Structure formats: C-alpha cells, structure tokens
Amino acid sequence: MMNKKRLRRRQRGEGKEATETKPVWVGLMGGGYKPLAEADLAQIYETALAVLAEIGLAEPIPALLEVVLPRGCVLGENGRLCFPRSLVEAAIAHSPKQIIYHAPNPNNDQVLDGNTMLFGTSGEGVTILDYKTRRYRPSTLLDLYDAGRLVDQLEHIHTFGQPFIASEFSHDLLTHDINVAYAELAATNKPFHMGLGTAAHVDRIIAMFDLFAGGKGEFVKRPFCSFGGCPIVSPLTFARDSLEVMMRCAELGITYDVAVAAQAGATAPAALAGCLVQTFAETLACLTVTYLINPQAPMLFGMWPFISDLRTGAFTGGGAEQTLVMAATAQLCAHYGLVSSVASGMTDANMPDGQAGFEKGISTVVAALAGGNSISPYPGAVGSLMGSSLEAFLIDNEMMGMVMRVVRGIEVDESTLSFAVIRETVNGPGHYLGNPQTIDLMKSEFLYPTLADRRDTTTWEEAGSPTIYERAHRRVRTMLRDYYPAYIAPELDRQIRAQFDIRLPMEMMRVGNGRW
Amino acid sequence: MMNKKRLRRRQRGEGKEATETKPVWVGLMGGGYKPLAEADLAQIYETALAVLAEIGLAEPIPALLEVVLPRGCVLGENGRLCFPRSLVEAAIAHSPKQIIYHAPNPNNDQVLDGNTMLFGTSGEGVTILDYKTRRYRPSTLLDLYDAGRLVDQLEHIHTFGQPFIASEFSHDLLTHDINVAYAELAATNKPFHMGLGTAAHVDRIIAMFDLFAGGKGEFVKRPFCSFGGCPIVSPLTFARDSLEVMMRCAELGITYDVAVAAQAGATAPAALAGCLVQTFAETLACLTVTYLINPQAPMLFGMWPFISDLRTGAFTGGGAEQTLVMAATAQLCAHYGLVSSVASGMTDANMPDGQAGFEKGISTVVAALAGGNSISPYPGAVGSLMGSSLEAFLIDNEMMGMVMRVVRGIEVDESTLSFAVIRETVNGPGHYLGNPQTIDLMKSEFLYPTLADRRDTTTWEEAGSPTIYERAHRRVRTMLRDYYPAYIAPELDRQIRAQFDIRLPMEMMRVGNGRW
Predict the structure, then answer these.
(1) Which residues, numbered 249 to 268 in chain A, qualify as contacts with chain B under a Cβ-Cβ cut-off of 8 Å?
(2) Which end of chain A is less crowded, N or C, counting CB atoms within 10 A of the terminal residue's CB?
(3) Surface of B (350-379) touching A: CB under 8 A
(4) Residues A65-74: contacts with CB within 8 Å, 24+ apart?
(5) B466 — phi, psi (to 5°)?
(6) Given an 8 Å threshold on Cβ–Cβ distance, is B270 in contact with A445?
(7) Mean pLDDT, each 10-residue run in order, chain B (516 residues)
C-alpha cells in the first residue's frame, strides 16, 4: 500500500531516534478504512455548502459582520448570515495543509498533515472518579496538575488537552483560566491545550507564556499551547463568547482548536448523514471566518457530531453511531484537505470497566484507521464525558498503543515474506524460536504492553487476581508520588507568581508532599 | 459504496422479518477496511503457492497419499508432500463460494458468502473463571450446557461453537464427544459446532443427530452441527488424528471447520507477512486435500495465524499484531473467494476487565471491517483462551452488537442528507427532538445496549456503582435460572439416552434444579 511505503520512508527519514527499531512511532498514517464512498463524501460536501449558502447561521456579532460582509457574506432579512460557495471553497483551499503542535520542549513538537495521526487528551469534564468510593467528586486544580504529570509520562499520549476544569474557581473565570494555563505548563513538556470562553483572557495568558518563552511576542512564534472551544450553538447559531476567542486567535495567527458538537436527534438531524451535513457546515463556517480574518491562521478542523440517546435525549458517546460519524469526519477532512481533530473514547461507562474498554477501543481504532489527524480518545474520561479517572489514563494509554500498532500495519516485502526462513526451519530445527529473523524482529515488530496482563492464569491468581483497574491504581500512586518535573525554573516561577494570581501551592509541586 | 448498496438490497430482499426497522441484522457486509494493498495480497499468495510446491508438508498418512498422489501431488525423498500450483488453484476455484450453517431450527440457518459476516463462539478452553473467587477451575459438561443456554438467548451471537471441554470426561474421549454433542443440541437451536479429534466418533455422533433429524441419513442433508479441528502441526506437518476427521467430513460432504493456528515466532516466522504466508499455505493444503476427496465438500477456510509473546514464547492473542494478521486473513480470503473463518477477541486479560474490553473490541471491529465471514470474537473467553467467564458472554454480546452497527455503516441519500429537515428546524422549533425524522429513525438508526450502562453518574452511584461485570453476573443468574429450552422432545430424549451414554442428568435440565 502506498500508505505503508510513505510510512516507511517517513520512518527512515526522520532521524531524531532510531524509529526503525520501535514497534510504533508518532506520524503513523491511517486511511485504510473508508466508511463512506467517494460519491457519499461529495453529497455531504455539496449539501453542507448548500446549507451555508441558503440557510446560513443565526446571531452573527457586529465585529464578525464588519469582517465578512465586505468579503461577500450575505446577511438575510431573518438575521442569518449566509456564506457563498466560492468563499467557503476559498477557505478550504487556503487552509493550512500542515499544522504544527509546538511544545514547551521543541523535541516534543508534533506535525499534523496528510493522514498522520497522534493522540491527545481532551475533555473539560467537571468531576473525577474516586477509586476507593466509586463516586464522582468535583475536579480541582490539583487534579488537573496530577493528570498533566501522568500524561507527561505516558508514551502513547502525545498532547495534553485540558481533561477537567478546576471547579473551585468556576466563579472566577480569569483566576480559573490563568491557573489552568499555569498548571498545564508546570505539569508537562508536551504540546498542550486549554478551553477558553473569554477573549480577553487570551492576551493575559499569553503574557504569562511569554515569560516562559523568553520575552514579549515570543509565545506566538512557537505557540506551545492552543486554545479551543465551540463558537457554535447548534443548529447553526453563533456563540458570541467562543466566537470572540476564535477571532482573537485568528488575529494572532495561533492555532484555534474548534470542536463543533451538534447532537444528532437533538441539535442536529437524527439521520447520521444529515448530522454530518450540519456539523460540516457549522465547522466550515468557523473555517471561513478564520480565513477571512487571517488567511495564515491555522484552525484545527474539529467537526464533532455527537449522538443523543433518543430514549432520553441525553448525550451518548459510547455507541456505534458515535464511532461511525467520527470515522466519517476523519475521512471527510482527509478527502478535502482539512487537518482534522477527531474524538473517540467517549464511553458511557461510569467506570473503567469492560464496557469502557470496548467502547473506547472500538471507537479509537476506527477513528485512527479512517485517517483522523489529531485524535482525542479521551484517555481517562468516563461517564459520557462527565468526569475522568486517573487510573483510566493508564488503561487507555495501553489501548492507544495497541491502536497505533494496528495503524502501522503489515510490511510485505521479500524479507518479511520469509520463504527462505521457512525452508531453513522445516529442514532444520523445526521451530522459529532461535531464528535470527525472530530475534531481529523482537523489538521492532511487536509491541509489548506495560500494564495490560499477559501472565498465565495461575500466576495471576497467585498475585491476587487483579483487574487492570486495580493494577492501574497502584501504578498511578507511584507515578504521581515520584514525578515532579521542574519545567518552570524557580526564578521564572517567582516572576510568574509575582505577576499572576497562581493558586497551585509550591509545596504541592515537590516530592514528599504527602498527597500520594 | 457498492458495499452499502448491496447491503440495503439484501436488507430489503430478505423478508423473514422487517429488518428495515432494526439497527443491525445478520448478513451485514464488511470490507471497508483494507489492511493490505492488492500487490501485497498477490505476493503473499504467490509465496504460499511456492511453499506448497517447493517445500511441502511432512507426515502425510497413507490414506491421504492414496488419494492425492494419483492426482498430481508429489512425495519428495525427504517424505514431504508437495502440491503443484495447478492443483491448489483448482481447489481454490472449485471451493464453494457460499456455505450454509444449518441450524436445528431451520429459521436459524445462516448463509456465508461474499463479505457477509456473522458471529459465533469458539474455544475449547479447559477452565472456567469463577465469579466469586476470581479463580479458574476445570470446565465441565454442565458448564458447556449453561454456556449454550446463554448463547441461545444472546442476540448478537449467531452460532455456538464449543467454548470449553467437559474435563471430567477427558480420560474417555468417546463419552466426552457424545456428551458435548448432546449438551449442545439440548442447549441451543442455533447452528453449532464441536471440536473433534477422532474420525471414528464422527459417525457415532451423526447416528445420534440422525435420531433428532428424523432418520438415518437425514443429518447430512442439513448438518446443523459442524466438526472442526486442526489437521496441521506447524510448521507444515500433518496431524494424523484431525486429518482423518477432516477426510471423513469431506467424504460425507459436510462442512469441516478448520483452524490452522501457526504461532508467529515459534511455529511460524516472526515476520507477520511470513506468518501469513505459512498459515495460508497450510490451510490451502487442507483445502486441496478436501477438494481431492470430494469437490463438493465445503471447508470453512480458517487460517488463524497466532502470535507469540517473544519474551516468553507463550501464545498471546490480545495484541495488535494478532488483530492485524487476522484482519489480513479476512481480506486475503475475501480476495481469493474463500469463505473465511476468522478469530478475534482472544484477550490476554484474565478477567472481563477494561483490558479484555479493548482487546476484544479492537480485534473484533477490525476483523469485521476487513470482511471476515464467520467471525469468532471468542465471546466469554479470557486468559489467552485458557478459559471462559459466563459473565463475559453477556459483555461480549454487547460489544458484538456495537461492532455490527459499525459494520452497517452510514446510508447517504437525499432523505438522510436532511437538507429540508435542517431548514424546517432552524426556521421552526430550533431543535430536532420532535421531528418526524427523529421519531422515524429512533428504532432503525440507533442500537440501544441492553447491558452496557448509559445512566448518569448520580443514578449509577445510587445503584451502588456497579461495573458491567457485576451487572452481567446478576443477569447470568436470571438467564440460567429460568431458561431451559426443550429442544430435545421427551420421547426422543428417551431414545437417545437408550442408545448413547448420556451423562447430562435430566434433573439438571429443568427449572428449579437449584443450581442458579
């Protein structure tokens, strides 16, 4: 498959480390699964463009109209803003074909293009599942910091999106947002993200990041944090606050991470195809606005059609229909050259149990095989995105490694076809255990889990018959007790704390604080 | 996608029940995922044919040589039997393109062809996981009977393959095999299978099935049970006992369910492509033997490359490499017109926990999307096929329903694209909850789980925060306490018990026996 060839060239070409000896690596390419036929893609595209041109979006704000009306958008008598086809197609054509996720440490920078995939966290859930009581409690700033420290250590999570809010500051959004930004910067050296609903906070947070980056104006040159949100209230209505954030990011030329989450049967058509049409139209509206403000501004194309359980009207993220529409968005974006953000893993299970396992696994492998770029399998998240479990971050990390190995695929060439090895073996030892090929491939062909069990049943019983959840809990404690990265140097930390209202106590950022 | 069109024609055409109002149905078609490029398929095919022609198989038995040598097979000086290319290609060309799984109740007959898929159990594990103690104990005849009664009630399991042995009879194989056959017939009205390692038992078991079918010679007209096994010891050696069973089934013209399970890195090359080559060659040898005995005899093409954990040499069924090689076999068989048997779900987790969930879910959705026909997601199985958990049958049934809905895909046409529905809604109520389309699609577009949780976290906490494993346990008890189908009528049962040594006590086959 061309896919494989490109993959191997990429593998050989990128010399940072000897990727050829690793079973998985960042930059693997999906696309082998095509949920929709080309004709289906075209029909969805055409209908979405018709929705934008003929139905349009309600509640455009004056600052938006000022930019888009002179460029050809049309405000109807009903107050809806329509986007002519030519404008939308120009936005698609000019959208960046490559987006770089910068990281605080440039070695962790990630490139998104074509069908290359990576995995990140996401969420902004409001609760955390307590291991001992099996009950949810409101999530705090310390929980966010802990999740960041965990993710920083987990191999198959490449970016850190804000998994929960700091609920103790929900009455004071500036303090909340500043502290989320600080906690994430303190916890991880991977590219990170945060949700943001107030445009005025963008510049304040960037001022803090500039201190880290070495001076005013430095952050936007290598924006190691991206801001995200949803500038749309479905169906087809602008949401002022997030729209303003998106517009400010576009002005600054930094990546905005949109997530348009119309819900099939509630705020989008129940027909899956129609749900795709509407969400595509809504996300294209965001792309076109971004393009009209700043043609160079990258927008991560997050069309996230969500599913309702029609018996209750509630969001349900764990079912097959959710898997399907997300796979379709991955394919749609790849087909039209939009760098995609795709969600998976939004299990409805309230614990990291067998249900969480199969709902997360199925949706994630399908999203990756369909060619999603920035995939959030919502590691850690349980309860239909209501909250997270720290243990689940570790379990999901194993699952994501497995998915990456599936995406890598099977290399077929004269050497791997093994005709000579087969002949030698049947004429020789009768098994392959000591064959040089076997030893050679041991580390490059096979991914060995680090938490998932491969013990025989007897050994497992002797260890007390633990589930992966129980094993994860023990490991979470060790990982959080011993790992306090010093990404913010002490002198810089003093500067930041002098200028910003930082609520993460310094004593909680050191080994031996007794929390774990 | 043509796939979808064919699917919908099939859906409309098969009038047994109003499938159009159901979210999933038997006969869905995979094939949307292509793990290998066409050139890769061709290389694997060519190399496998070269292996058969130039390396051949060891230890052919005299009865086999008698059939195949006059037809062009060649016995080398080294005692290996080689298959000329033309013979293997004739066997492939003549292999039935459709296989029917007959059922004791003809309403449950299943058809396998093209990319149509169904799900069955499998295994022949030797232990069962006890819920309370979390320990494995040897499986018994009653366990097998119970598993059959469960599967008979589970919607997304379409055939019942023997999940475990009756270990109390392992010293007496005839009693064992007769009782396995009886217990399966008593427990389910779905098509069923059993493993068989002694050719002489075939006719004895058929004599019993003939009583059920209404007279001597009746069973083979509608064989509602298929026999299976592995006539190969890898690498490339015949296994006398199972070979004799396969040859007897071919003579009788009944489906033989082969499972050739060479293990990468131990009994097959560690390179995944080479492992595919060898397993393909071994299974093609079985197909060719079957063809030479009886060109009309159907053989279910079960090339089952297995994976070793090269750190220990032990079988590991839960990893990504296992998922990949099985998906490749599904594609390979579909490409060359062989009706395939494909395995998935062979988790290495020792309990139905989160690990079991994602390993089973990922491998099963990938196998189904790759176009496998008779897929065994090993429902119930845990511990690298060492045993089963009754609770896991229920959990896996949910997972398999989800996979079927993914395989069904998204229908795209003018109605589902929903342009008019979107326009009405934004100009009207502003939501889709009461829209006729929503109500219309509620039962046909969406699959609602019956065991998987969709409760909100508060309701779940109030119910005691149960995992799916805990909920499954409660349901297993109800399902097994109340469900004793009378598939074997009393008079027939007396006849069978008069002629065969049946060890399943009649009092254990009635409600109120106190076991559950």
Answers:
(1) 264-268
(2) C
(3) 350-362, 364-366, 369
(4) A67/A247, A67/A289, A67/A292, A67/A293, A68/A288, A68/A289, A68/A292, A71/A292
(5) -80, 145
(6) yes
(7) 40 42 93 97 98 98 98 97 98 96 96 95 96 98 98 98 97 98 98 97 98 98 97 98 98 97 97 98 98 97 97 96 98 98 98 98 98 98 97 98 98 98 97 95 96 97 98 98 96 98 96 92
Residues of chain B neighbouring A467 (CB-CB closer than 8 A): 351, 353-355
pLDDT at B20: 59
Q: Which residues of A touch B444 (CB under 8 A)?
A: none
What's the pLDDT score for residue B15? 39
What are the C-alpha distances in Å from B15 to residues B12, B18, B100, B417? Answer: 7, 7, 18, 27
CA B79 to chain centre: 34
Kindly indicate the confidence band of residue A20, based on its pLDDT and cuts at 50, 70 and 90. low
Closest to B112 (Cα-Cα) out of B363, B331, B372: B372
- Give ipTM to 2 decimals: 0.96
As a whole number of angstroms, the distance between CA B155 and CA B60 comes to: 42
In whole angstroms, how far apart are CA B136 and each of A98, A324, A461, B314, B357? 52, 37, 8, 19, 19
B residues 161-190 closer than 8 Å to A (CB): none
Q: In chain B, which residues have their Cβ closer than 8 Å to the Cβ of A313?
A: 433
How is chain A split into domains, by residue range?
A: 1-30
C-alpha–C-alpha distance, residues B332 and B335, integer Å: 5
pTM equals 0.96
Helices (H), B294-418: 320-335, 354-369, 390-408, 414-417
Q: Decide if B120 contacts B300 (C-beta within 8 A).
A: no
- Residue among A412, A445, A460 with most chain B CBs within 10 A, to mutate: A412
CA-CA distance, A367 to A30, in Å (whole number)? 9
- DSSP-derived 3-state class of residue B8: helix
Tell me if residue A370 falls in helix, strand or coil.
coil
Contact A354 B277 (CB under 8 A): no
Burial (Cβ within 10 Å: 0-12, 13-18, ≥19) of residue B140:
middle
**Rounded CA gap, A27 and A112, in Å?**
8
Of B318, B362, B461, the CB nearest to A135: B461
Angle at A61 between CA A58 and CA A64, to 5 degrees: 105
**Structure tokens, A262:** 């119309």
Element (H, E) at B150: helix B141-153
The answer to whether B392 faces chain A, any CB pair under 8 Å, is: yes
Which of B57, B38, B34 shows the shortest CA–CA distance to B283? B57
Which residues does chain B have within 8 Å of residue A350's beta carbon, measured at their own beta carbons? 453, 455, 457, 460-461, 465
